[in-house]
Every structure is written in structure tokens, then in C-alpha cells.
Amino acid sequence: MKQIELVPALELGNKLNVDVMDFPEDAGGAAEGAADDAAEGAADGAARPAGPRRKRCGITLEYAPRDVRELREQGMDPEAMLEYYRKRVYDLVKLNISQDWACCGGMDEVLQIVRKHIEG
Length: 120
Prior knowledge:
Elements lengths: L1 E10 L3 E8 L13 H5 L13 E9 L2 H9 L4 H20 L3 E5 L1 H13 L1
Helix pairs in contact: 3-4
């Protein structure tokens, strides 16, 4: 499974651009030999692979008032909306990189930005 790091790139009023970083030396497998200190700050329990990273692609999350209103009309509370956006991130990245992936950092930062906009 590919290790991916998410980096919030540009926060706008109605959307967030996120850079999707991968680790070419990881070769799509488990992060063997990752440094212990890199693993300490990892999100979702996945260790960040040691070595350089590169931008693989970018995704955009939209949270315009209309988008949030539609989710509320579907009966979602703020926690359910965050789970929706977490799944949306996963699906968008998977579509772009054509494989399953695990987040080794950045998901919490992305969801905090989304939370600020859906609760505000």
C-alpha cells in the first residue's frame, strides 16, 4: 500500500487545495526502515517513510455554503460531515494515484481546515 502525505497548499473561502506527496523510494510497499522520529508525528498510525518526497498530484475539497447545506439536508451533523470529507479525500487520492494508500501525515491538518469552514 502506498504511503501518502497530505499538505494543505491553498485555503480559499470555499475550497482547499491539497498537495498529495508520495515517497518514490517506498515503491508502493510498507514503510520499512522508516526513522523512529518520523513515525512519532505520523497521522492515522502509519509511519512516514524515510527519504525524499515528491508531489504526486493535487486535490481540491469544496466546502461552499451550498455544499455544507446539502450535507445538512442529508441529515449529517458536523462529525458525519468530517467523515464524509475524510472519505472524499481518500477517494480523490485513490482516483489520482490508481491504488490504495495510507496516510502518513497531514490528514488531521486538512480536516481541521474543513472543520473550521463547516462549523463556521
